[in-house]
Amino acid sequence: MEAVPRMPMIWLDLKEAGEFAFNAAVKKSAVNVPRDFEGCSTLRKYFGQLHYLQSRIPMGAEQEAAVPIAWTEIFSGKTVTHEDIKYEQACILYNLGALHSMLGAMDKRVSEECAAGAFTYLRDHFPHSYSVDMSHQILNLNINLMLGQAQECLLEKSMLDNRKSFLVARISAQVVDYYKEACRALENSETASLLGKIQKDWKKLVQMKIYYFAAVAHLHMGKQAEEQQKFGERVIYFQSALDKLNEAIKLAKGQPETVQEALRFTMDVIGGKYNSAKKDNDFIYHEAVPALDTLQSVKGAPLVKALPVNPTDPAVTGPDIFAKLVPMAAHEASSLYSEEKAKLLRDVMAKIEAKNEVLDQFMDSMQLDPETVDNLDMYSHIPPILMEKCAALSVRPDTVKNLVQSMQVLSGVFTDVEASLKEIRDLLEEDEAQERKLQELLGKVPPSQGSPPPPSPGLAEVSKECSKYLEVHEKASFTNTELHKAMNLHIGNLRLLSGPLEQVRAALPSPALTEEDKQVLQNLKRILAKVQEMRDQRTSLEQQLREMIQKDDITTSLVTTDRSEMKKLFEEQLKKYDQIKVYLEQNLAAQENVLKALTDANVKYAAVRKALAEVEHKWNTTVQTLVASYEAYEDLMKKSQEGKDFYTDLEGKAAKLLEKARAACQAAEANRQQILEKEMKKQPPPRPTAPKPALQKKPLELEAGGLDAGDLPPLGSLVLSEL
Length: 723
Prior knowledge:
Residues 414-444, 524-551 form a coiled coil. Helix content is 68%, strand content 2%. By secondary structure, the protein is mostly helical. Among the domains are: 1-134, Alpha Horseshoe (Serine Threonine Protein Phosphatase 5, Tetratricopeptide repeat); 166-304, Serine Threonine Protein Phosphatase 5, Tetratricopeptide repeat (Alpha Horseshoe), CATH 1.25.40. A 3-stranded antiparallel β-sheet has the order 1-2-3, with helices on one face. α12 runs antiparallel to α17 (515-551). The two termini are 81 Å apart.
């Protein structure tokens, strides 16, 4: 878009701290931070130092040095207290994410990757039972909101930088994906009950944004189609963008004026694009407009990530102020064990990611979707859009008749105008020929030489008007011809849509599959289901492994274990992961056989797929053509009426000009007769001859070029042989 309208963003309130038996100065600096990036830095340092503290002093839940820690719960305002140092860490981490969300919502639109990173770390490394605002559902909601808003900032920058249309469309589509995930969380009854009254406001804003950014995505897909000169695709993408924007406008009721202004601006851009594209395609390109669901969906491009939180990064947390407080042996051993667990997870994840990459590439190359692999259901009924057109025509039975009559009237007026202009032209040509004969007879112009004699002023005016009308008629004739072609193209389709529904259904192509073809399809769908089952199982096992590693804390055992026995203890403790590793190995090993079976099934499916694709293409083309014919009716009637009005006006002008031409030609003919009579009187009389017996009067004959004016035929009958 020429400019980038902004939508408001959601930001989160900070939790308020209550009782915590800790140094007052440290506590004050950590809970009353300024609302800027310095505040973020303070929270990070405090979080890191708490991590160093809890690794040395037993301040965890039910440990010797645990003290009460109180914080307010955001949504209810209630004070929640736990005797667990991790609760303090969790609340600080929550505030870090909330503060970043505030900064991200400001005019500068700072990236909110950090906000999502803080909430992600909080979700993955801390219990979810501390308070409602840090439950798993709420944290997932916050993560998707922050990622969506960070992606929204990136989209804004991409449009300002005039990045390629396809990239902008994918970035916008990813905004939609993040907000859809957030909306699912908001629609969850449990989440809604946790959020309270703000749930409705957030949900309304997020739903509106989903449609708005979907419209932006399709706007840029339309611009890409325009760049690729795919004018039919351009129309349907702009139409879809317009539809989605209208939905966003409906959902925007009650939103601030800034939102309304952004929607109006976007409507001006998309509406203008759609009207221009449709007009160009209707009158210039004539490309078939495909159905939107036949085009490849826009896949989101997740270009923002939740930046990881590292509580032991000295560049962020500063030096460890508790370094000399207690011996580090137990902590070091715990860190070593954590590294063993991390190594185990890295090894397993490397194998999973390698297999997933192969699987994703394979499935992308296959382009097989289990939900639409056959699409046979679509052929069993008339699509709703076509039913809508049939229903509309059923209450307008004279549609085709009116269209035919309108064109007949237009053709009649067109013919009358053409006849009048032809007669005027013939009169002018005849007058010019007569004038040339007179000039040749009088000896002023040698026969067949020179330019035509100038016409009389009256005829010159008629000739000028006639040329103008002929030019206008010729230009309009092309438009009239194109209009007739368009009508002939659409009348048959309109007759079909006006008829029985069975005829409409019969006109739509449908596949003719043999029993063998159906078996091929069923086998392919069965194997695709196996692929999905394999994916789901792999994801579940991975999640189980992560949860086991997260909960695996052997600090108590490390305290009572001699350093020389640490390696043996690690080996024994890591054996708890053997069973789940076996399950994962079996899952990964099965992939090769599943993909081989899918390859074989796909080979057999190739011929069926080609046939189905051809039928689906014909079906879509037929539906689009029938819908286009219905939608063209009003436009054809309008243009037909405009043509009738134009030619009726031109007919009146041509009729008046014809009368004027006839009168001018008659006057010119009379003038030529007078000139010829005068010329004849200038000739000397004939010489007398000797009288003859029984003299009788004879008609004068042509002598020495002389003529008796009384015997002259009309000028139109003179020929050169009479001279």
